[in-house]
Design a protein that fits this description.
The structure is a single chain. By secondary structure, the chain is α/β, with parallel strands linked by helices. The protein has a domain of 306 residues: Alpha/Beta hydrolase fold, catalytic domain (Rossmann fold), CATH 3.40.50. The chain contains 20 helices and 14 strands. It starts with a helix and ends with a helix. This is Alpha/beta-Hydrolases superfamily protein isoform 3. InterPro entries: AB_hydrolase_fold, AB_hydrolase_lipase.
Length: 476
């Protein structure tokens, strides 16, 4: 309608003739106008045709919303892959969605964990060729896609939980509640399935499979927090290798905009959580509107390019495809990730102190109750507890988590004796999950392949049968 109005304003003679026609025969004019709008023609082209010139096709307004409401399940199953949804309950009552592309008899599994304002959709959004989840499955891995608390569904065992209570969590809960619950569920599922599919084989330990983790951004910070806290508690973390793509944890080298946000969150911390417990879009209509606007920008390159430039400047020049990401299915009317105030406040604390540490509850007594010390745990001081290989990957064009901050992880780990590697690629922050880069996929897969299978031994019953057979052969 806006397009038509602009057309008639810029074409006064055509508008005047339609007006005169409407005065002479109102019913005909209205009918012509309705037909003109409803049967609007849209130029289209099909890639691969011998004649790629645009052709005309009829498009009705009933199908012109231009939104994408697919779920991760829809993307996986549409491409012909198997799918399984597992609901996981954390120790503090949150219900998480652990999605899976199952290979039930595989001894190797990979767990992919997204970052802030993201979901499992990020690992499958590039289709078969460019998505880490499909690449891992095609290499023979049992693939698990984790989802942090904070999706629109906001599931909790307490059905009457208030919004303020639900969003009362920081990165601490991602690393000490969400990840442990999902990895323990993976362990439970894999152990049971392998006992059924391979009853005659046993490993020398209680874990008959190897589990690697790939994490992006805040997911990387949560994964490091998980491994360190499990080691402190002397509990098994069940991981064999970590691949961390532009991991969060150190943010003292960042843009002016992030510095302003840091001081804003620190200043308003006593008040803002009471008014705004989280940052998310609460209604289906406005979630759909954001998704539609982002997708429409692709159809209008000039406008989309302007918005892309503005958003890029807002995050310090990071060249990620911000508009393209907002148009992906996980930013749709049905499900759109949010971020709690405490998570944002936690990141501000990390940036302000220059240390990768756990959440500061604001008082000595509160910290003493949680940590047993007046100050939060400085995770960087405990990197020596990491007992598995870690692969750190940074993006030279990343202005959200700059390479210098990833190298800070590397130097601390190297100095603590961790088996760690460091690599850089010409990527921006979102390119690690939302862009198709064969070079990155090849690198990640090569790191996973370094993990060797668990040593196997024959089960007691099978060994006894073989001994009896050998004994009878000797007697004969």
């Amino acid at each position: 309608m806006f397009h038509k109005a602009a057309h008639y304003v810029l074409s006064p003679f055509e508008a005047f003739s339609i007006f005169v026609k409407w005065l002479s025969c109102p019913s005909v004019g209205v009918k012509d106008f309705k037909d003109d709008v409803i049967n609007a023609s849209v130029p289209t082209a099909t890639l691969g045709d011998n004649d790629p010139a645009p052709r005309e096709r009829n498009l009705t307004l009933h199908h012109s919303l231009n939104t994408d409401a697919r779920t991760c399940k829809d993307v996986i199953t549409e491409l012909g892959y198997p799918y399984e949804a597992i609901h996981v309950i954390t120790a503090d009552g949150y219900v998480l969605l652990l999605e899976r592309i199952p290979r039930r008899d595989a001894w190797k599994a990979v767990y992919l964990q997204h970052g802030i304002l993201d979901s499992s959709m990020g690992w499958v959004s590039n289709g078969i060729v460019g998505s880490p989840a499909f690449a891992a499955f095609d290499q023979g891995y049992d693939v698990y896609l984790g989802n942090f608390r904070g999706l629109v569904s906001r599931e909790h065992v307490d059905k009457n939980i208030s919004s303020r209570q639900y969003w009362r969590y920081s990165i601490n809960e991602h690393g000490t509640e969400d990840i442990p619950a999902m990895i323990e569920k993976i362990h439970e599922v894999k152990t049971a399935e392998l006992k059924i599919s391979q009853p005659d084989e046993e490993t020398n330990d209680e874990q008959p499979y190897k589990l690697c983790a790939i994490s992006h951004s805040m997911g990387g910070a949560g994964m490091l927090m998980y491994v360190i806290t499990r080691r402190i508690e002397e509990k098994p973390h069940r991981l064999s290798r970590l691949v961390l793509l532009s991991p969060a944890g150190f943010h003292d080298d960042s843009t002016f905009v992030f510095t302003m946000m840091e001081y804003l969150f620190l200043l308003l911390a006593p008040i803002l959580p009471l008014l705004v417990p989280a940052f998310y879009i609460p209604t289906r209509f406005f979630r759909m509107l954001l998704n539609k606007l982002a997708r429409d920008f692709h159809n209008y390159p000039a406008v989309g390019g302007l918005v892309q430039t503005l958003m890029s400047y807002f995050v310090g020049g990071d060249s990620s495809n911000w508009i393209g990401v907002l148009g992906l299915p996980h930013y749709n009317m049905n499900d759109m990730p949010g971020v709690s105030f405490r998570v944002a406040h936690h990141l501000a604390q990390i940036k302000h102190t220059g240390k990768f540490r756990m959440y500061d509850y604001g008082s000595t007594s509160a910290n003493m109750e949680v940590y047993g010390s007046p100050e939060p745990l400085d995770l960087g001081e405990y990197y020596g507890l990491i007992d598995i290989p870690v692969d750190l990957v940074a993006g030279r064009k990343d202005q959200v988590i700059r390479p210098r901050m990833v190298r800070k992880h590397y130097k601390l780990m190297k100095g603590s004796g961790v088996d760690v590697s460091y690599s850089e690629f010409e990527y921006a922050h979102l390119d690690f999950t939302f862009s198709h880069h064969e070079e990155l996929l090849a690198y990640v897969m090569s790191r996973l392949l370094l993990v060797e299978p668990a040593p196997k031994r024959q089960s007691g019953q099978k060994a006894l049968r073989l001994k009896r057979k050998d004994w009878r052969t000797l007697n004969c």
